[in-house]
Write a structure and sequence with these properties.
Largest sheet: 9 strands, mixed
Distance between the termini: 24 Å
Strand order of the largest sheet: 6-5-4-3-2-1-7-8-9
Order of helices and strands: EHEHEEHEHEHHHEEEHH
Radius of gyration: 19 Å
Structural class: alpha/beta
Number of strands: 9
Shape: globular
Length: 286
C-alpha cells in the first residue's frame, strides 16, 4: 500500500501548472504539532496495512529544515520494519541532505519534481549531486519544443513525463491538442531508454481516446483509487488523488473507508486520467 503524506503547502517555486496554487494555504501548524500528527496517522496506517510504501511531499520538502527532517526520520525509524520504501519529491533547489536518516537510509529515494522550464536543464549539473533515482517532469505545452534535447541531455536518470493540463486548481495552462500528443509520443519513442514505460502507455492511451472521441468525452470521473492513500496533515484531509478536487475529513473513522473515498468527485484533468490508467494503481472509467 502506498501512503502519501503532505506535510506543508509552502514552496520556493511558482510553476504555472501547479494544482496547489488555489488551495487554502492559511492553515498553519507548528512543527511540533505536525510531527505529533504524522506519528499518529503513520501508526494507524501501519496497524491497518502492516507494510507500506511511504511517500513524503510538500509543498517543497526543501523548506522543512534540518531539525524538522531529523525529528521526522526519528519517527520513521521507529516503524522501519513495516516500511518497504520511502520516496521524497523535491524540486532540488533548497533540499539539504544533512539530516540523519538512521537505519532506513537504504530505503530512501528522491524524485526530482516540478519544473515548467526544461530548456537547458541538466539534472546532475544543476544540482551537483547524484541522489535522484528518477525525475518527474510536468510538461507544459510551450515546453514541447525542448523535450527531445532535455531527454538526450539526461539519459542517466529515469524520467516520468506527465502533461500539465487544465484542472480545477490550475490557471493559465493550455490544453494539448491531438497534434501535440502526436509530437510528444514521437519524441518519447525516440528516447525510450530512459523514459518510463508508463509514461508512453498513459500518454498514448489518451492520444488514442482524443483521436476517437474528443476531449469532452475523455474527462470522466476516476474509479476506485484503491492502491494509494493521500493524507494532508496541514488541513486534516484525505484526498482521492493529487488533483485535490475532492476530499473527506481526516478521522480514524474515515481513514480506511473506501466507500467514502469512492463518493468523491475527481478533477477534470486529462493527464490525471492518463496517470491513473497506467502509472498509478487505480483504473479509470474511460
Amino acid at each position: 500500500m502506498e501512503v502519501t503524506f503532505y506535510l506543508n503547502k509552502d514552496c520556493n517555486m511558482n510553476c504555472s501548472y501547479c494544482n496547489q496554487k488555489k488551495m487554502d494555504k492559511e492553515h498553519k501548524k507548528t512543527d511540533e504539532q505536525l510531527l505529533i500528527d504524522f506519528e499518529k496517522w503513520l501508526d494507524e496506517c501501519i496497524k491497518y496495512y502492516k507494510n507500506i510504501d511511504l511517500c513524503l511531499c510538500g509543498g517543497e520538502p526543501g523548506v522543512w529544515g534540518i531539525n524538522f527532517l531529523n525529528n521526522l526520520f526519528k519517527i520513521i525509524n521507529k516503524y522501519s520494519k513495516n516500511i518497504n520504501s520511502i520516496l521524497m519529491f523535491t524540486n532540488g533547489k533548497l533540499f539539504n541532505l544533512g539530516f540523519e536518516m538512521g537505519k532506513v537510509i537504504d530505503k530512501v529515494t528522491y524524485s526530482w519534481h516540478c519544473t515548467d522550464k526544461i530548456k537547458d536543464v541538466i539534472l546532475k549539473k544543476e544540482y551537483q549531486r547524484d541522489v535522484y533515482s528518477s525525475a518527474v517532469v510536468i510538461l507544459t505545452k510551450n515546453e514541447i519544443q525542448y523535450l527531445d534535447k532535455f531527454l538526450k541531455d539526461n539519459k542517466e536518470i529515469g524520467i516520468n513525463i506527465q502533461l500539465a493540463q487544465k484542472s480545477f486548481y490550475t490557471e493559465g495552462v493550455e490544453d494539448f491538442t491531438l497534434e501535440d500528443y502526436n509530437e510528444i509520443i514521437k519524441i518519447l519513442r525516440n528516447n525510450k531508454e530512459n523514459i518510463s514505460t508508463f509514461s508512453i502507455l498513459a500518454i498514448n492511451a489518451i492520444r488514442n481516446k482524443l483521436r476517437i472521441k474528443g476531449a469532452d468525452d475523455i474527462r470522466r470521473t476516476c474509479n476506485n483509487q484503491s492502491g494509494q492513500l493521500l493524507i494532508d496533515l496541514v488541513e486534516d484531509r484525505i484526498y482521492k488523488c493529487c488533483s485535490y478536487m475532492g476530499y473527506i475529513p481526516l478521522t480514524s473513522e474515515n481513514l480506511f473507508r473506501k466507500d467514502e473515498l469512492n463518493k468523491i468527485s475527481c478533477g477534470d484533468c486529462i493527464n490525471g486520467i492518463a496517470y491513473y490508467m497506467y502509472g498509478g494503481s487505480a483504473k479509470c472509467q474511460i
